[in-house]
Amino acid sequence: MLRFEHVSYRYPSEDFDIIDDLSFSVEPGSFHCIVGVSGCGKSTIFRLTNGLLQPKAGEITVGGTPIGQLKQYCGYMPQRDLLFPWRTVGQNLALPLELRGGLSRAQVREQVEAALSDVGLAGCGDKRPEELSGGMRQRAAFARTLLTGSDLLLLDEPFSALDFLTRIAMQEWLLAQWQRHKKTILFITHDVEEAVFLSDRVLVVESTPIHTLTPVEVPAAYPRSRECLARPELAELKEQLIAILRKQVTP
Questions:
Q1: Where a domain ends, among 128, 149, 170?
Q2: How does pLDDT run across 50-97, given as a tens digit for each residue?
Q3: Residue 164 lies in a domain
Q4: In what order do the strands lie in the sheet with 184-189?
Q5: Given 107, 122, 149, which residue is the final one in a domain?
Q6: Is the peptide bond prior to 223 cis by the omega test (within 30 degrees of 0)?
Q7: Taking the model in full, what pTM does it have?
Q8: Is 80 exceeded by the pLDDT of residue 248?
Q9: Strand 2-9 to strand 19-26: parallel, antiparallel, or no bridges (unpaired)?
Q10: Would residue 251 count as lying in a domain?
């Protein structure tokens, strides 16, 4: 689904490549979490993938085709929901459909209503974003991402601003959505427990500049419940990942 081949990138204000000769691949239908300390370059990988940044060297392909030759090949959901306050929830969801074009107003409305129902927000299309709770806003943002029609979804710490209980509920909800829609998900987080619970494979940033993403398999089948995190092998995996990340943090 996604492949980086010897990709490098340097921010204009820096004197080193934050992404340095990075190669990795992601299989169709998989759920990968990228974990690393704050500022290590995780989000840079996403900005390169969605074309917001251009690599200094190397090639990025989706489905075997360079991304420069593709349109609407990925959906991107940032940490903040970025719902426009001057538009209703339904109008926010309609944005990717309007940008794509080729649909009548009735077709757009039908797809938006179906997406809202799919994420448990039926009847909320005429509300303003400020009328929704944090979890509801994130569900609306995820529905908007789905409406891009892309099979590859990039989710950049989408639950980090939520309170603890809402975050747990959203993690369980996201897994159900992933299993239902069969999308390929790359999910950035610095929360090791979140990564272990969600992903079938964790991609670990062990150093900056990022030369490699170390793959770590999660020994748990789907569907999952929170209880599985208490299993000895998952508790041990979580501690191993924490130990790797702690080495990068200077007291």
A1: 149
A2: 999 999 999 999 999 999 999 889 999 888 888 999 999 999 999 999
A3: yes
A4: 74-77, 152-156, 184-189, 31-35, 201-205, 213-217
A5: 149
A6: yes
A7: 0.89
A8: no
A9: antiparallel
A10: no
